[in-house]
Design brief:
This protein is an alpha/beta fold. Helices cover 32% and strands 22% of the residues. The strands form 6 sheets. It has a 6-stranded mixed β-sheet, sandwiched between helices. A 4-stranded antiparallel β-sheet has the order 10-11-12-15, with helices on one face. Strands 20-19-18-21 form a 4-stranded mixed β-sheet. Helix 5 crosses helix 6 and helix 7 packs across helix 8.
Length: 440
């Protein structure tokens, strides 16, 4: 990645300057796609798109969306370089369907390192820090490699432990004394539990900060959600949220003020649209649509991420003028309508994550005989043998749901070890917490 971008401090320029900057980058991206992408060459031809007439960000609305299905059906047609230029092959996690292969060039890996470097910097990580990565770096996963490359570029120390195994995590913390860890926030509760069970003084450990991935820590007003509150009550450490995906190859990271993930204008163009494809107003929820900038191997144009978010464009207290993206409300195709209430799975996760005796869970959605959404929660707890105790647990959980989201789904108490095999199958890189059986 060209270092002149960091010298420009593009995120601190005015909104008008950022927009003009992105419009110049868009012209370069469109020309590159027209010259190199079989998929977009065909799209431009079939839709009579004259890229010379796409001069402003608003003009993007003339171009059709790219969907996950497009990537699945025509994966090879997105490749813009000869195969011999590909350095790294990765796949998406398959959250919204079959995984998609992405091919990255040497230039793409440099861009990835730059992205993570400025994202970690936004989250307050410095070259003097030591960061313990509790994330997967293998299994064709982009994120773990990205974090390593970014921290290396930043000059910070890196400890690649991988995910899971609380015993190994604490052994590493005690040996190397990192001041920052990076992990899925719900895993923090697991390492806290292990520490408490093994008399580890975790509150006085070297760890002072957590950079979190994969799960929301905040409500839409940026206050800590139930999971975030529970972590802070147990362990008063600094929490930073990040949001990213393989397709975007770009990260939105919180700054110290925790008011949304900051946009990197030199790396990605973002839109938020409603179900009809129209741009929504600032602060309103819609689906995030992205156009990648500076990607050489498989760039994307107006890609629908499936994530529902909102934008905030007022200047942040940190001084950045680039827009900020809210915590993810949910997936566009995970909308649930249950007993007259509209909700998304994260609202259900929030209740379960804040229930101490629930070790793990799966939210299973299907249709009843009338075609309405039916929700079954399989909650993993320590083995319960007394029927009365089982009934009390179910009643307590249902009361919690009614208090928080106004409705109580059906609940099945399961053995946590049995449920763990469903949540973390051998070939999965991410926990499977949502199973949608409504799809035909």
């Amino acid at each position: 990645m060209n270092t002149k971008h960091s010298l420009l401090n593009i995120e601190y320029l005015s909104r008008e300057e950022i927009k003009r900057f992105q419009e110049q980058k868009l012209k370069t991206a469109l020309l590159y796609l027209k010259n190199n992408s079989p998929f977009y060459q065909k799209m431009f031809l079939e839709n009579k798109i004259d890229i010379k007439k796409i001069n402003f960000l608003e003009d993007l609305q003339q171009i059709p969306f790219t969907t996950k299905q497009n990537l699945q059906l025509y994966n090879d047609q997105f490749l813009c370089v000869p195969c011999e230029k590909v350095i790294d092959f990765i796949t998406t996690s398959g959250t919204l369907g079959d995984p998609v292969t992405f091919a990255m060039t040497d230039k793409d890996l440099d861009r990835l390192a730059y992205n993570e470097k400025i994202s970690f910097t936004c989250a307050g990580v410095q070259s003097s820090d030591i960061v313990q990565l509790m994330t997967t770096i293998d299994k064709r996963f982009m994120a773990g490699l990205a974090y390593f490359l970014g921290l290396r570029s930043l000059g910070a120390g890196v400890v690649r432990v991988g995910n899971g195994i609380p015993e190994l995590q604490w052994d590493t913390i005690n040996r190397i004394k990192p001041n920052t860890i990076m992990c899925v926030p719900s895993f923090i509760l697991h390492i806290i539990k292990y520490a408490e069970e093994h008399s580890i003084d975790y509150r006085n450990s070297s760890v002072k900060k957590v950079v979190c991935i994969g799960e929301n820590l905040r409500e839409q007003d940026f206050s800590l959600n139930l999971l975030g509150q529970r972590i802070k009550e147990k362990w008063d450490i600094a929490l930073y949220s990040t949001y990213a995906s393989t397709e975007m190859a770009t990260t939105f990271a919180e700054c110290e003020y925790g008011c949304g993930g900051h946009h990197h204008p030199e790396l990605i163009i973002c839109e938020v649209v409603d179900s009809f494809g129209n741009t929504v107003a600032d602060g309103e929820v819609g689906e995030l649509v992205v156009t990648t900038l500076g990607v050489e191997g498989m760039p994307l144009l107006r890609f629908k991420t499936g994530d529902l978010v909102s934008f905030y464009t007022e200047k942040c207290r940190c001084g950045r003028n680039s827009m900020r993206v809210s915590p993810v409300v949910g997936r566009a195709n995970h909308l649930l309508k249950y007993k007259g209430t509209t909700l998304y799975p994260p609202a259900i996760y929030d209740v379960l994550d804040n229930t101490p005796y629930v070790e793990n869970y799966v939210v299973e959605v299907s249709l009843d005989e009338n075609g309405n959404d039916k929700i079954l929660i399989k909650a993993g707890v320590k083995e319960v043998k007394v029927k009365k105790e089982l009934e009390e647990l179910i009643k307590e959980l249902k009361d919690s749901f009614r208090a928080k989201i106004r409705v109580a789904p059906e609940i099945e108490i399961c053995n946590a070890d049995d449920l763990r095999k469903i949540i973390l199958p051998d070939l999965s890189r991410k926990p499977i917490k949502f199973i949608d059986k409504r799809k035909k």
